[in-house]
From TrEMBL:
The chain crosses the membrane at residues 39-57. It holds the Pfam family Sulfatase. Its main location: membrane. GO terms for molecular function: phosphotransferase activity, phosphate group as acceptor. It comes from Paracidovorax wautersii. GO terms for cellular component: plasma membrane. The lineage of its organism: Bacteria, Pseudomonadati, Pseudomonadota, Betaproteobacteria, Burkholderiales. GO terms for biological process: lipopolysaccharide core region biosynthetic process. It is found in: Cell membrane. InterPro entries: Alkaline_phosphatase_core_sf, PEA_transf_C, PEA_transferase, Sulfatase_N. This is Phosphoethanolamine transferase EptC.
C-alpha cells in the first residue's frame, strides 16, 4: 500500500464523508443485520474506486518525475510480487488490475520515447545499380509454421505448390530456429539484436524498422493479428516504429479473417510510386490454431480436416489425422498468399526497380510428435522451435545483386536462428549500421553459425537448442 499516500488517504476520507452524507440525507432505517452487511461488503466495495484512482494518480505522477528511474523499474510489465490469484480475483483484484494496466501504459510510453531518442546511424551501404529507381522489400512474419511441413523442404505432401513451382528462385532455410515457442517472446528478437528474454525483462532497443527509416525507407506494418494486447507489449514496441500500422482485426482473433485480406492494402501501398523505397512487414495468422479458421472453406485440400465450427481438443489423439490435415491446409493457404505477394512485388519492380520477399515464422507447432501427446506450442518440443523461413528475390534483384544472393544460397543449408534476421535484412537491402555483424548475415560470405540459444517458455530457462533441448524434447522418437 505504499502507493496510497496523501492522495489516497484524502480520497478515501472524501468517499467516506460522501457516503455518510448520502445515508443521512436518505434517513435510512436499517433492518436488523443490515449494518454489518453494509460495513462488511458494500463499504469496502465503495472504497475500491477512490483507492484505484489514488493509485493511478500516484503512478502517473512518479513516472513523470523521474522517467529514467521508472524505466528501470517498469520494463518488466508486471505487478512485482503480487500473486496471480490476487490479480484475477473479483472485486479485490479490480484496483490491482487497473493499476497494473496503468503501469504497463506508462512503461510503454516511456520505453517508446526512449527508443525514439536512439539512433543506429544507418546509411546506404552501397550505391544502387544503374537504372534502379525503386526498391520494395517485404518481410512476411508467419505464425506457427514448422519447417518440416513445407514441400520445398522435402515434406511428401504438396503443401507449397506455388513455392515449388518457383524452382530455384526460392532460397529456403531448412535449419532455422526461433527464439521462443510463443509469439510475444519470439517476435522481438527477430527485429532487434535482443537475445531471448523472459516476460519479466525487456531491453529497450530500436528495431530494424528504425534502421530502414534512417536509410530513407517508408515502413509499413500490416497485420491480421491484433496490433496491441495484453500479450503483445514487446511486439507493439516493434510495430510502433513503423511509419504506418494497419490491422484488419484490431479487436483480436475474430473468425472470418484471412491473411489474403491484406492484399488490397498491399496493392494500395505498392501503388504509391512516389515512395521510391518501401519496407512492408506483413504479420499474418498463418497456421495458428484453430487451423481450419486460417483458410477459406474452398481451400480445403487435405481431408478429413477438423471443421472450423467444431470444438477441437489438442490433447485428443483421436483427432490427429483431422488436425494434421487442417494444419497442412493452412500451410497451403500461406503458400498461396506468399505467391500472390511475390507476384505483386515483381510487377511493382519490373521496370527500373528491384525487390525481395523474406518469410520467417515466429515459431513452429507440435502435432502429436513423438511422446508429446498433444498439438500446439509453448512447451519444450523441437518442432515448436524449428521454423519455416525462406528468401525470394525478384528477377531484377537476383540479377543485380549477385554476391548477396550467392552468399544466401551458399549459407541456406547451414544452421541459423533469429539473430540472423537483423543483419540479413540490412545486407539484402544495402543498409549499413555501425553495429552490423557480417558473421550473422546470411547474405554475407563471412557468415558463421553460432550457438543457438532460446528460451523455454515453460520454465523460463535459456537453453541451447542443439545440446540442451534434446534432453527436454517430448517430440524425440
Amino acid at each position: 500500500m505504499s502507493w496510497l499516500g496523501t492522495t489516497g488517504l484524502l480520497m478515501v476520507g472524501l468517499a467516506g464523508l460522501a457516503l455518510a452524507f448520502v445515508l443521512r440525507r436518505a434517513q435510512v432505517a436499517w433492518p436488523a443485520g443490515r449494518v454489518r452487511q453494509v460495513l462488511g461488503v458494500w463499504l469496502p466495495l465503495a472504497l475500491l474506486v477512490p483507492l484505484t484512482v489514488a493509485a493511478v494518480v500516484d503512478e502517473v505522477r512518479k513516472s513523470r518525475l523521474d522517467e529514467q528511474a521508472w524505466l528501470q523499474k517498469a520494463v518488466a510489465y508486471r505487478m512485482g510480487g503480487l500473486p496471480r490469484a490476487m490479480l484475477i480475483s473479483y472485486p479485490a483484484g479490480v484496483p490491482l488490475r487497473v493499476l497494473n494496466y496503468v503501469r504497463q501504459e506508462q512503461a510503454t510510453r516511456i520505453i517508446r520515447n526512449h527508443i525514439n531518442g536512439m539512433s543506429f546511424g544507418a546509411t546506404r551501404a552501397r550505391a544502387l545499380p544503374p537504372g534502379v529507381q525503386r526498391e520494395v522489400y517485404v518481410l512476411v512474419l508467419g505464425e506457427s509454421l514448422r519447417a518440416d511441413h513445407l514441400q520445398i523442404n522435402g515434406y511428401p505432401r504438396e503443401t507449397t505448390p506455388n513455392l515449388a513451382a518457383a524452382g530455384g528462385q526460392v532460397v529456403s532455410l531448412p535449419d532455422f530456429v526461433s527464439a521462443a515457442s510463443i509469439t510475444r517472446l519470439a517476435v522481438p528478437p527477430l527485429f532487434t539484436r535482443r537475445l531471448p528474454q523472459t516476460d519479466g525483462a525487456f531491453t529497450p532497443e530500436p528495431s530494424v524498422l528504425k534502421a530502414f527509416k534512417e536509410a530513407g525507407f517508408k515502413t509499413y506494418w500490416l497485420t491480421t493479428q491484433a496490433p496491441f494486447g495484453k500479450n503483445d507489449a514487446g511486439i507493439s514496441m516493434v510495430l510502433a516504429q513503423a511509419d504506418e500500422v494497419r490491422a484488419v482485426s484490431p479487436e483480436g482473433w475474430r473468425p472470418g479473417v484471412y491473411d489474403s485480406d491484406l492484399l488490397p492494402w498491399i496493392d494500395e501501398v505498392l501503388a504509391k510510386t512516389d515512395e521510391p523505397r518501401q519496407l512492408i512487414v506483413l504479420h499474418t495468422r498463418g497456421s495458428h490454431a484453430q487451423y481450419s479458421l486460417r483458410y477459406a472453406p474452398e481451400q480445403t485440400h487435405f481431408q478429413p480436416a477438423a471443421p472450423s465450427d467444431a470444438a477441437v481438443n489438442p490433447w485428443d489423439a483421436g483427432q490427429v489425422e483431422s488436425l494434421r490435415n487442417a494444419y497442412d491446409n493452412s500451410v497451403r493457404a500461406t503458400d498461396a498468399f506468399a505467391a500472390q505477394v511475390m507476384q505483386r512485388v515483381a510487377r511493382a519492380t519490373d521496370s527500373q526497380g528491384q525487390g525481395w520477399l523474406m518469410f520467417v515464422s515466429d515459431h513452429g507447432e507440435t502435432l502429436f510428435d513423438g511422446q508429446c501427446g498433444r498439438a500446439g506450442h509453448g512447451f519444450a518440443s523441437s518442432p515448436n522451435f524449428h521454423t519455416a523461413a525462406f528468401i525470394w528475390p525478384t528477377p531484377s534483384f537476383a540479377r543485380l545483386n549477385g554476391p548477396a544472393m550467392a552468399a544466401s544460397r551458399a549459407n541456406a543449408p547451414r544452421p541459423a536462428d533469429y539473430r540472423v534476421m537483423f543483419h540479413t535484412l540490412l545486407d539484402l537491402a544495402g543498409v549499413s549500421v555501425p553495429v552490423h555483424d557480417p558473421a550473422l548475415s546470411l547474405a554475407s560470405a563471412t557468415y558463421r553459425p553460432a550457438t543457438r540459444r532460446l528460451i523455454d517458455a515453460g520454465t523460463g530457462s535459456i537453453i541451447d537448442y542443439d545440446t540442451e533441448l534434446p534432453a527436454l524434447d517430448c517430440a524425440k522418437k
